[in-house]
Specification:
Layout lengths: L1 H17 L8 E6 L2 E3 L4 E3 L5 E9 L1 H7 L1 H4 L7 E6 L2 E6 L2 E16 L3 E5 L5 E6 L6 E16 L2 E16 L9 E2 L2
Parallel strand pairs: 3-11
Antiparallel strand pairs: 1-2, 1-4, 3-12, 4-9, 5-6, 6-7, 7-10, 8-9, 10-11
Length: about 180
């Protein structure tokens, strides 16, 4: 009986050591003035206030490239040559393979109560809330990323798409700075 439990313990630790997690579905991490917020979070801002909204795609192929030891089934047998948020290069059985980000298009779209201007980086936008009376408003962010895999002279492409929404709400009769409701 002791031997049986010992085998179970060994099998458990072996599987835990070499387990590969499935890649998370692509999603967008939003920030307001550098502070992370959740998708569909309600943010209270005043009329005319300007905020810098940032958007970064996470999950999908980006997870695979940033963390191959967690999400790739190559980590135990391949030699990782380079990894990062925009690509992964590894060698497996004398064959070099590469995942790289070809393009990433980010769009910020507001309703009639949100003015959207490009920010200092392509992943940011400056938003200004209208002086027109309303109770809620929204900003939609879409990211479309194209990845390419190359190995042995062959290439394949993969698309990752994600969407996030920021809900803006005016405070009832008060003039405070942006407040993120938690």
């Amino acid at each position: 009986m002791k031997g049986f439990f010992m085998v179970l313990v060994i099998v458990f630790f072996y599987n835990a050591t070499f387990a590969v997690e499935p890649v998370r579905k692509p999603f967008i991490q939003l920030t307001i003035d550098g502070h992370p917020i959740k998708n569909s979070e309600v943010v209270t801002i005043t009329s005319g206030q300007k905020l810098l909204v940032g958007a970064e795609m996470e999950g999908g192929r980006r997870d695979f490239c940033k963390f191959p030891d967690i999400y790739a089934d190559i980590a135990g047998t391949a030699q990782i040559l380079s990894r990062g948020k925009d690509g992964l290069i590894y060698q497996l059985n004398d064959s070099k393979a590469e995942w790289k980000l070809l393009s990433e298009n980010i769009s910020f779209t507001g309703d009639d109560f949100v003015e959207v201007k490009p920010g200092p980086q392509k992943s940011t936008a400056e938003i200004t809330l209208s002086n027109t009376p309303f109770s809620q408003s929204f900003l939609k962010v879409n990211i479309h990323a194209t990845w390419q895999f190359s190995q042995n002279g062959q290439t394949n492409q993969e698309e990752n798409i994600a969407e996030a929404t920021l809900i803006n709400q005016k405070p009832a009769g008060c003039r405070k700075h942006a407040k993120i409701n938690h």
